[in-house]
Design goal:
It is a single chain. This protein is 61% helix and 8% strand. The chain is built from five helices and three strands; from the N terminus they run H-H-H-H-E-E-E-H. It has a three-stranded antiparallel β-sheet with strand order 1-2-3. The longest helix has 47 residues.
Length: 239
């Protein structure tokens, strides 16, 4: 597994690629609009008519449009890579920071933890890892949140839940049981080969879409035969 600092750099590099690609897309779309507008003005026709007539003359417009389609496909691929990289980053941060949190909090096992001690624990973790974390206790749930910092949204924060019978932080402010690595579950997996994973998932999505289309045909045929108050089934749509 790569260190979170390495993955963070990969996220930044991939983000730059996406930005460069978006600029290319804007440029190609502008070229398309200029070609169509020039034909409109010259032949005094509508944009739809201009597109039809230009495709009959040569393949210049079609080549630009195909290039735009390919650029959008590449943008989608890079966006998917970014999703996986962020997931990997969260996993790497969890592996690096959570043991430090355990170590810092377990120093106060059985002791009263007030506001000053809370700040002391958080500062210790931040000094050792560079990441901020918070904890809260409500009902039977004990929550630890690790912020990823600049460049990430609140939704990217790592949230870990510990049930009360594993670790209790009672209303008097005491840690009553040792916090260890095996008492939380981090649900994301680390993806070693990101490129290959993204390609595999693209193939799986293609199979899924085809299966949904086949199922929709069956649903449509069934619904057409329904009468009265018979139950009609909803079609599946790709989100």
């Amino acid at each position: 597994m790569k260190k979170h600092t390495v993955i963070k750099q990969e996220i930044n590099d991939n983000g730059k690629k996406i930005q460069e690609l978006q600029e290319l897309i804007k440029g190609e779309e502008q070229n398309e609009k200029m070609l169509i507008k020039a034909y409109e003005d010259k032949h005094n026709c509508s944009p739809i008519q201009a597109r039809k007539e230009m495709k009959k003359l040569d393949n210049t417009l079609e080549e630009i449009q195909n290039e735009i389609i390919q650029l959008y496909a590449e943008e989608e691929r890079l966006e998917q890579i970014n999703v996986v990289l962020v997931s990997n980053y969260r996993y790497a941060v969890y592996k690096a920071v959570y043991p430090v949190i355990c170590e810092a909090m377990n120093k106060y096992l059985g002791k009263r933890v007030g506001e000053k001690t809370t700040d002391k624990i958080r500062n210790e973790v931040y000094e050792k890892t560079g990441f901020r974390f918070y904890w809260s206790h409500a009902y039977f749930t004990y929550k630890i949140s690790i912020g990823l910092g600049t460049g990430f949204s609140y939704n990217d924060d790592i949230v870990l839940y510990v049930t009360w019978n594993n670790v209790e932080y009672n209303h008097h402010g005491f840690f009553e049981e040792e916090l260890t690595e095996d008492k939380v579950k981090f649900y994301d997996n680390y993806i070693e080969d990101v490129e290959n994973y993204v390609n595999e998932m693209k193939e799986e999505r293609s199979k899924l879409k085809q299966a949904m289309e086949n199922l929709n045909e069956i649903i449509d045929k069934y619904n057409e035969k329904c009468v009265g108050n018979m139950h009609h089934y909803s079609r599946y749509y790709d989100r």
